[in-house]
Amino acid sequence: MAEGGPDGTGGLGSGVQRAQAFLVLATLLYRASHLLVGVAAVARHQAGRPVSWAVLAAALGCSVLVHGAARRRGWFDRRAVVLDVLVTGCALPFAAYAWADTRDAPSIAWVMLLGGSSSAVAAIALRRWAALASVLAVGAAHLVGYGMADAQVAVTVGHLNAVASSAAIALVFWWYLRRQGRLLDAATAQAVRAEAESARYAERIAHHRALHDTVLATLTAIAQGGVDANSAGVRSRCAREADYLRRLVQQNDAEAEAEGDPAPGRLPAGTALEDAVRDAEDLGLRVTTRYHALPALPSDVATGFGDAVREALNNVLRHAGTGRAYLTATGDDGHLQVTVVDRGTGFGPERPSATSGLGLRRSVHARMRDIGGAAEVDSAPGEGTCVTLRWPG
Closest by alpha carbon to 4, among 123, 140, 147? Predict the structure, then answer.
């Protein structure tokens, strides 16, 4: 017999979870078909026997207990299954024989029929030896019960075959579906790894191109003597590209420290931040960055966060009266906080464009609000500005 899924086996993966859900539904339908036979038999031939209705109610109660718990938890509760075997599979046939006057094989057959569905659940829900003992106990109860009812040998053998075959078929289904579920989980994991590797490769190509177009181009021009290495323009460009290399190292270290490969549909936060910083540097802003444990974010969140950071840096360029900004990004358990600080002119609450115009409120606050984040602005005249962005808000 199988060692059915213990509590929490849904953690094995979505494929196994679907296999378990299917087996729960299949055995529920199997039990429901037996209960319908019992309702029809009692209503037609034993309607005047209250004990028959009580036996049917007890079987229904055990069914609700077993399958209701399984639907809630994702798999069967072993204690409920054992109780169902003892009550539905073993005790109810004798109760019906003793108190419902079902003394012949035709009148007791509907009670015996329920044993097949109880053995099917036991075969997949209990551990190997417990499952075998449960099926044997149900079979023994049926053998004794039909012997007391003077059933023909063919009837007894047929019902014993139903008990054993129900358990065997359920066991085979469970083995096959669990195997297919694990294969599906393995294929899904492989696809995730391939997608992550593809994303890493695309990111490496982007970095290689950026290095070729910036750092390598500058070094080549200096080596060939085509530019004056001591000129202010070349020194400024070298400083920007040195900052880019430092950010690249920080970004890789921070993302590796946070969570490794991003899951499908998520982007490294450092990639979105770096795009915003590079855009600001292309406009002449010098940005000093610090990254720590950057998480991978949902794609739309990463894009919105990058746009908000870009607009905060653009605000430094337009209004701060300084050519330098400081960006710090830290992650913690999937959360991200970014601060953009400048030591420029700052502003007070009386400046409408900063609080309610097309500036920070619409371009930064609104973007963060759209992705479920939040933004705070702290500024005073002559003391610079600090913009804090958080996700989740």
Answer: 123
Question: Which residues does 81 contact at the CB level (< 8 Å), separation at least 6?
Answer: 66, 121, 122, 125, 126, 134
Angle between helices 153-211 and 14-45 (to 10 degrees): 150
CB atoms within 10 A of CB 3: 13
Q: What is the CA radius of gyration of the chain?
A: 35
What are residue 71's phi and psi, to 5 degrees?
Answer: -65, -35
Give the pair of three-digit tokens for residue 91.
């005790």
Q: Assign 3-state DSSP to the chain and report helix, strand, coil percentages, each to 5.
A: 70, 10, 20
* pTM of the model as a whole: 0.55
Tens-digit pLDDT profile for residues 145-199: 888 888 888 888 988 998 999 999 999 999 999 899 888 888 887 887 777 677 6
Enumerate residues 6+ apart whose C-beta is below 8 A from 4.
75, 76, 78, 123, 124, 125, 126, 127, 131, 174
User: What is the full DSSP assignment across 312-371?
Assistant: HHHHIIIII--SEEEEEEEEETTEEEEEEEE-S----TT-HHHHTSTTHIIIIIHHHHHT
Q: Environment class of residue 326 by beta-carbon count within 10 Å: exposed (0-12), middle (13-18) or buried (19+)?
A: middle
Question: What is the tens place of the pLDDT at every residue in 316-340?
Answer: 888 888 989 999 999 887 789 999 9
63, 81, 237, 314, 345 from 22: Cα distances, Å? 17, 17, 63, 55, 66
Tokens of 79: 């204690």
Structural contact between residues 288 and 324, judged by C-beta atoms closer than 8 angstroms: yes
